[in-house]
């Protein structure tokens, strides 16, 4: 209502004034549209103090550092997909998006720390710079979306669902950025992130879980595609990055059965479940699956979408 708008305008006004004071008129960026992203990229300069030195803010020209610009673009692409789903940033209220690059030395990972994105450069032997894959950027940001919505716990099946929805969002951002249909997409997560020394193409494959790499150092990709191969382990928070292969593959099967752009119908159904308020923090695969069936029906009726959702879960051995 009007009261809320006034509050927001007030906040924007205050922020603007503070920026002017701190940075001076010369450093101020071109004002971003009120409904656009508000991105800031920092350089941790190979240290672990966050966020580090501010290097690029919203609307500012490209930095000299390609890593900074890839992070900036990846945040923007993810924000755009959320906008397509009618959501303003990850909290639904225009939350500014912060990212730090060059975190630590030879750091072979990227993560959402509860408040911002953090990217390592990789060690150059196994992993390259983690900003090279837009799906990895979107994956980490999607952890923020999950935190603000279903808040799935990070252990066992709810943890694997948490990981899987991040992979789904990640892949959808990549597909949308490249203008690819479900049939054209590679369905890989983190393609281009492994050095040429590693026998592998990516971190994970939603199309063929378990086949992303098979390497002397890394071992074989441990992901299952169906419940028959479900991995019981205490490692990796109960296999959150392992068993995510099962819901990942279900999404792949749904999207390719429907055809066209995966972020439209298949993605919308998953997004509806994640943000719809009915997904419990401790949801298992079965309860998530049943909610996707209900979400397909709620949005598209008892048609091919609901049918395809049922079939996809059945193919990976999850009972609906
Ligand atoms: N990159 C990892 C992830 O987002 C970090 C972690 O293990 N939480 O899943
Ligand atoms: Zn993750």
From TrEMBL:
Its EC number is 3.4.24.-. Its cofactor is Zn(2+). It is an enzyme of class 3 (hydrolase). CDD domains: M4_TLP. It is found in: Secreted. Residues 150-318 form the Peptidase M4 C-terminal domain. Residues 39-147 form the Peptidase M4 domain. InterPro entries: Metalloprotease_M4, Peptidase_M4, Peptidase_M4/M1_CTD_sf, Peptidase_M4_C_domain, Peptidase_M4_domain. Its main location: secreted. Keywords: Hydrolase, Metal-binding, Metalloprotease, Protease, Secreted, Zinc. It comes from the Bacteria. Belongs to the peptidase M4 family. Extracellular zinc metalloprotease. This is Neutral metalloproteinase. It comes from Streptomyces xantholiticus.
């Amino acid at each position: 209502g009007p009261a809320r708008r006034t509050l927001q305008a007030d906040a924007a006004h205050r922020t603007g004034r503070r920026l002017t004071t701190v940075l001076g008129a010369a450093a101020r960026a071109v004002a971003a549209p009120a409904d656009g992203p508000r991105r800031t990229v920092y350089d941790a300069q190979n240290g672990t103090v966050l966020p580090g030195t501010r290097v690029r803010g919203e609307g500012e020209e490209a930095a000299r550092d390609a890593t900074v610009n890839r992070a900036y673009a990846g945040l923007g692409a993810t924000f755009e997909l959320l906008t397509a789903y009618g959501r303003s940033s990850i909290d639904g209220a225009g939350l500014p998006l912060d990212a730090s690059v060059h975190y630590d030395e030879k750091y072979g990972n990227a993560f959402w720390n509860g408040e911002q994105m953090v990217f390592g450069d990789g060690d150059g032997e196994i992993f390259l710079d983690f900003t090279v894959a837009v799906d990895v950027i979107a994956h980490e940001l999607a952890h923020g979306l999950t935190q603000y919505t279903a808040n799935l716990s990070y252990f066992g099946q709810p943890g694997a669902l948490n990981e899987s929805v991040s992979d789904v969002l990640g892949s959808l951002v990549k597909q949308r950025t490249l203008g690819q249909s479900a049939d054209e997409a590679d369905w890989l997560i983190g393609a281009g992130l492994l050095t040429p020394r590693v026998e592998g193409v990516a971190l994970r494959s939603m199309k063929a879980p378990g086949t992303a790499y098979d390497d002397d150092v890394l071992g074989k990709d441990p992901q299952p595609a169906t419940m028959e191969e479900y991995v019981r382990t205490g490692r990796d928070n109960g296999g959150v990055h392992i068993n995510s292969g099962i819901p990942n593959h279900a999404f792949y099967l749904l999207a390719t059965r429907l055809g066209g752009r995966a972020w439209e119908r298949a993605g919308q159904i998953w997004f509806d479940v994640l943000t719809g308020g009915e997904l419990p923090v401790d949801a298992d695969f079965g309860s998530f699956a049943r909610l996707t069936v209900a979400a397909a029906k709620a949005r598209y009726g008892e048609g091919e979408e609901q049918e395809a959702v049922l079939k996809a879960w059945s193919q990976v051995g999850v009972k609906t």
